[in-house]
Design a protein that fits this description.
Radius of gyration of chain B: 15 Å
Oligomer: heterotetramer
CATH class of chain B: Alpha Beta
Bound molecules: pyridoxal-5'-phosphate, FE2/S2 (inorganic) cluster
Structural class of chain B: alpha+beta
Strand content of chain A: 15-25%
CATH architecture of the largest domain in chain A: 3-Layer(aba) Sandwich
CATH class of the largest domain in chain A: Alpha Beta
Largest sheet of chain A: 7 strands, mixed
Number of helices of chain B: 6
Shape of chain A: globular
Chain lengths: ~425, ~170, ~425, ~170
């Protein structure tokens, strides 16, 4: 998103009202009200998303691709419509051709690593990642390091939890691919992606954006980011599990071979060889996540209706409020691992309270029905950089408000007293 | 349109052209031009032969096999363009593609900007294919031969093709 | 399944009653009653499956893997429980370790081709497939042919639509892997899998069973089949889209590297290399299809409740009835591409009526709300063998009865008259 | 069990052993045996030192870091087995694992065949860890040090290990 976008919209979310759309949040878990602060792992979903999928399963399901009967045509139409909706949501210039549905963001990045990487990279070629990446945007490249002998370079993190771009040009020099998250799932850090993309492009590299965390929370436009590939997941943005998205520039997608092979992705099959289909079909072997695409469409419509800029602003305000309260309440006992501003960060707060182990913290918080995540958050290299093996992490979304933050702080106080 | 989509699709004219295809056969190459169009979705194929002289399509022949829609559309096409100039033929192709895209454009945009100016009367028997737009998967069938024709014209004019050679998605 | 199993159970299905569980079938498509004869492409699903998923999304969803709070524990428990249920359904000796959830059957087979094939096969190694395979069980091996230079051998089909096993031992001689469908999605043919597996094992090959068609319709036991890998899909067995299953022998799974890389499948990540996790986690990178696993559990419970042997028997009876009626009605005008018995075949009927094009047939049938599939059914090499580019295919499941078959025949008569 | 699972988990004995771990430290190797147990799920680690003489564990020391459950369990373990014979120690390990497996077995089979014969009295302070079974993800924490101990005994006996070295799934 651009700064002007954020500045121009400040419509307050009606969280009270929004919570009503989420049964777990309005009716509780086994009847007990919960503060769900783990949306960075997976969001909840509104009734309209669930209803869209149920309705699809009940009255519109058939397999897609070329069914002649009306029911199959309907399923086809809904599935292709999901592609268009998803593409437009991230500003894809050619949504019908540039959106590939995968099972999650992880598969989307693996698709790039296999289809592009395995065929375009050879020994000694350079791939650049950052120190704050999620394993989804690391392991595929590390596997290429092993399989193809590529060299992996790392953009380091500074002590203020922002990326250290002082040597950016040096690092990307000669690189073939630069992969960077749009937002850290541990720190909340939002790197200056456009700047990195510019440097990468100048160096002749293509650029992969891991949008798993930012796409659900902000207005993201692939043209403004100037990325070549963008990956994200349905389940973190009010959509179903079982669906992820890869956006890729049409020319780029068109230039690479398939990844997974099977039905639907070929024009012809002989025992001697295959003729792959056009994009995006080439990358969608087998029966795709049809109901999931229908659910994702409903989720995007719900998000669009509320407004991505409003959601981003809401997260930022709630994060600022929470960080303030945490500092006021716990003073020097609390450490927040993430940028101190709200400008370069999203609504993810990793924290340490005294020397209480994150798992103990999360356990005590659960007793107060405050749901946070403890662990390495699939970011082992970052944990090493932070000098720890785990953090406790609270994360916000459009259905959270200050009452959730207050419950977090109250429950943390309880933990402090138990382990005090 | 009539309430029964099926009768709209399989109009008598279409079935007639399917059962008794016009201009069936091949021609010597050269002087004629031979162009194939393959529908990867079903494996069907239409082959079009064009004999051009002084800017006029003196003869058109059709070979290949496929469903009633692709075969009748090829037959109707051959009858419509035989004897026409290259210019006139391009206009007919353009009108026909407009006819077929009404539904597709609706599909993609949700908008109904399909009030296109097609002179339906001028289309003659070709208008019988209008019912196809209600059956999105079959549009590809109807367009098959026309893609071959368009490509053939490009080759005749020696220009680079301005139409994709395969059926659009 | 074994012959004795089939012989011992003959409980008639109460289809009238079963249809009530499927809104599309009891209430119709836009209010019009339909004869859904395309379950080989994808089945419908009963209300209990949809409710299980909605219930999960509403009140039990969190991301799995190590969440400390109760909601995440619940999601974890449901997900691992799905693994056990699915494993037991196909007789897995060690369900907790041997079941890998994928996005569909196609990905399951690709997992074998990438993780096992790319690392175990080199130039000149032999992989055997059959002439009746679905692209899902062909393309991954053909891609290995291209990438690794392996040799592909083919078990041919006889004119009676059964496999020609006369030269079986010769064909599998020296092979490293034999991949065979448990049931053809075009012909209905059920090959004598155990016989092929025995020959393959004697030759020192491992054996892959494509269970996408048979697992939904019969009692399948990996021990009785004596396969090393088994792949199938949720959406063909009353379950959701977005989930597939790979069963593999524990030792075998344990001996191969990961396929897709990302979160959840590693023990440790350094920029220099990764330490993969134990099985089955090693093969499940990223957020898995959690709600889909819950839906699949409900589907399996529904199927188990009705009884797989009863379902198989039901399909067989309905198929026999339909083939008889087709022959009686259309005589020499109809060609049925599939075995003439009901012993070696399931409820899939590929047919040709006069020389009416399959797409025209399917189109006319749709006008009577009879849903069949026309096309190559993702089996191009088989189409070549059959000397055609497409067939019209009707397929049955537990919610079909003779009234559906009768509607099929009536609609075919109409088509015959239109194109007569 | 008490209605509050949390109080059941963080019993006073456990918090005491967490805050004031017993037998903390290392020993020279040899004569002592050093065994590590690593919990890949959280990155925590327990290191156990065993000094055996004439079939008796003369001394036990614990190093490493982790959550309150893993650290207190290690401390409780060291107190429970120090001075015990190898045989007695094996019995204690076996009883403790039974205690921890009650929940896991329920989880997998849905059956409640967990009426295992564990002499809870004989377990002494170790019984305080019983509350852990209500928190499946934390069982791995409680078992961590015990896996190291079991491995150490195997190494002392020179037998091949009969326990997996890493935390079971
Ligand atoms: C025999 C066979 N194998 C594999 C598949 C692939 O299944 P899926 O599309 O769910 O991956 C199918 C589905 O059409 C099939 O019929
Ligand atoms: C930054 C980031 N990238 C990628 C992923 C992977 O997403 P998924 O598990 O849906 O594949 C996540 C999810 O945790 C993430 O936070
Ligand atoms: S179905 Fe092949 S051209 Fe119509
Ligand atoms: S959380 Fe690591 S051992 Fe308990």
């Amino acid at each position: 998103m651009t700064d002007t976008d954020i500045a121009t919209t400040k419509t307050q979310l009606d969280v009270e009202h929004i919570k009503q759309d989420f049964p777990l949040l309005s009716k509780g878990f086994h009847g007990e009200s919960i503060a769900y602060l783990d949306s960075a792992a997976s969001s909840q979903r509104p009734t309209c998303v669930i209803d869209a999928m149920s309705g699809y399963y009940n009255y519109s399901h058939a397999n897609v691709h070329r069914g002649v009967y009306k029911l199959a045509e309907e399923a086809d139409r809904l599935y292709e419509n999901a592609r268009i909706t998803t593409g437009k949501f991230v500003g894809a210039p050619d949504p019908a051709r540039e959106i590939v549905f995968t099972k999650n963001a992880t598969e989307a990045i693996n698709l790039i690593a296999y289809s592009w990487g395995m065929h375009r990279l050879s020994e000694g070629d350079v791939v650049v990642v950052t120190e704050i990446e999620h394993h989804a945007n690391l392991v595929p490249w590390i596997m290429l390091h092993k399989e193809r002998g590529i060299e992996l370079r790392v953009i380091p993190m500074r002590d203020d939890y922002l990326l250290d771009l002082d040597n950016l040009e040096e690092i990307v020099d000669g690189a073939k691919l630069v992969a960077c998250t749009l937002m850290s799932n541990v720190l909340g850090t939002i790197p200056p992606f456009k700047k990195i993309a510019d440097a990468a492009h100048s160096a002749g590299a293509i650029v992969v954006a891991d949008g798993a965390q930012l796409v659900p929370h902000a207005h993201v436009d692939v043209k403004e980011l100037d990325c070549d590939f963008l990956a994200f997941s349905g389940h973190k943005m009010l959509g179903p599990t079982g669906i992820g998205v890869l956006w890729g520039k049409a020319e780029l997608l068109d230039s690479i071979p398939p990844f997974i092979g099977g039905g639907g992705m070929i024009l012809d099959v002989k025992f001697e060889g295959i003729v792959p289909a056009e994009i995006p079909t080439r990358f969608e072997a087998g029966t795709p996540p049809i109901a999931e695409a229908v659910g994702l469409t409903a989720a995007i419509e719900y998000l669009d209706n509320i407004g991505m800029n409003n959601i981003f602003h809401h997260d930022a305000e709630l994060t600022a409020y929470t960080i303030d309260s945490l500092k006021n309440t716990f003073g020097r006992d609390i450490t927040i691992m993430g940028p101190d501003t709200t400008e370069n960060r999203g609504g993810v707060i990793s924290l340490a309270l005294k020397d209480i182990h994150p798992h103990d913290l999360a356990q005590v918080l659960d007793e107060s029905n405050v749901c946070i995540r403890a662990g390495h958050h699939c970011a082992k290299p970052l944990m090493r950089r932070l000098g720890t093996s785990a953090t406790a992490r609270a994360s916000f979304y459009l259905y959270n408000d200050t009452s959730d933050a207050d419950r977090l702080i109250e429950a943390l106080s309880k933990a402090a007293s138990i382990f005090g | 349109m009539s309430s029964s989509g099926l009768e709209d699709l399989y109009r008598e004219i279409i079935l007639d052209h399917y059962r008794n295809p016009r201009n069936r056969g091949s021609m010597e190459v050269p002087p004629s031009q031979r162009v194939e169009a393959y529908n990867p979705l079903c494996g069907d194929e239409v082959i079009v032969y064009l004999l051009e002289k002084n800017g006029v399509l003196e003869d058109v022949r059709i070979e290949g096999q496929g469903c009633s829609i692709s075969q009748s559309s090829a037959s109707l096409m051959s009858a419509a363009v035989k004897g026409k100039t290259i210019e006139e033929t391009r206009q007919i192709i353009s009108d026909f593609k407009k006819l077929m895209s009404i539904h597709e454009s609706k599909l993609e945009d949700g908008t109904d900007d399909a009030q296109m100016d097609i002179d339906m009367d001028a289309m003659g028997e070709l208008a019988a294919l209008q019912g196809v737009v209600r059956f999105p998967v079959r549009i590809k069938c109807a367009i098959l031969a026309w893609n071959a024709l368009a490509q053939g014209l490009d080759e005749i004019s020696g220009s680079s093709p301005d139409e994709p050679r395969q059926v659009e998605k």
